[in-house]
Amino acid sequence: MAQPxxxxxxxxxxxxxxxxxxxxxxxQAAGHDVIHLEIGEPDFTTAEPIIRAGQAALAAGHTRxxxxxxIPALREAIAGFYASRYGLSIDPGRILITPGGSGALLLAxxxxxxxxxxxxxxxxxxxxxxHFLRLVEGAAQxxxxxxxxxYQLTPQLVERYWDHDSVGALVASPANPTGTLLHRDExxxxxxxxxxxxxxxxxxxxxxxxxxxxxxxxxxxVDDDAFVLNSFSKYFxxxxxxxxxxxxxxxxxxxxxxxxQNLYISAPSMAQYAALACFExxxxxxxxxxxxxxxxxxxxxxxxxxELGFRIAVEPEGAFYLYADISxxxxxxxxxxxxxxxxxxxxxxxxxxxxRHLAGHHVRFAYTQNIERLQQAVERIARxxxxxxxxxx
Length: 393
Ligand SMILES: Cc1ncc(COP(=O)(O)O)c(C=O)c1O
Fold this sequence. Notes:
Blueprint: H1 7-10, H2 17-29, E1 35-36, H3 48-59, H4 72-86, E2 95-98, H5 100-112, E3 118-123, H6 127-135, E4 139-144, H7 155-161, E5 166-172, H8 184-196, E6 200-204, E7 227-231, E8 244-247, H9 253-263, H10 269-275, H11 281-308, E9 321-325, H12 333-344, E10 346-347, E11 349-350, E12 362-366, H13 371-387
The chain binds pyridoxal-5'-phosphate (PLP).
């Protein structure tokens, strides 16, 4: 008999929404008009100046490996972005370009987590975080969070859940699936709490830029020793180019470089050259327009869903998600999602994909569709609620 696949691989759960997505695609192939609110990806294609820069990079033959840390010009451009957006002076030598924010997460977990050690993570949260920890033979200490802490970790929660195997905490601001932020004083308090325990603070700032009515603070404004994960996927609209970055303390960089060389050699070359165009004023103007479009969508969808009876206890200030409690309707979230997909052809994500804490009572809506489509979705959801029978499943 063949050897089994590794225990670490078997321990990783698939995205539960993929089963719904497969069904959504089947329905679509059969001619149904499915409204997709399940995908965590901007609906906009990459902005024109970035595409042109990518085409020029290919034409110029930028098709080979780059340095493992990434091309100097892009690291400098990102440092420049920290200066202009946050008033921060970050040495480009502390920035590593990675294949997506996922690559940055791979580097950070590989560097910081020994077998058997764990990081504190908010539950609900981005599911891959705990899976990356499992891959390096560490673990996630899931901390149930709710509206009282705006779904974020707090120093009190760190105090309560920290134990002798804890080596750090990973937080996200804005967070997926809740869209809530950690403000500057909250980041500072977490930093103090982690430092007091000798733990690492890792902050996922992948949704920075997508905030509404406020700017997100970077943890680097309050803690130079924190690790920051970031990405060109969301605000910069480059999901398929697979590009992100990690900002690390100087003493970690050569170790991270060694890991990068071994794990993926370099981030995609043409994507790195294309990304240089992200920081041009013309591109930023397009990205800002898109940010406003997301804000208009949130401002429409949030009250519309609340009106229907979904409980969204905390107004999300960022990302493009609404995390809604469906208790008012009864039943379980996966069956609830399936009902709306089958009867009304609206797809959204069950809470189970984001952790365990009250997951069966929550769903996530991604407002990655234009307002007209969102209006149609709301009409369909209103109709679907009339036929939802929680006990029938
Ligand atoms: C919170 C969070 N972190 C990280 C990622 C990884 O994204 P990427 O690898 O495209 O940068 C995602 C993607 O959805 C996310 O939601």
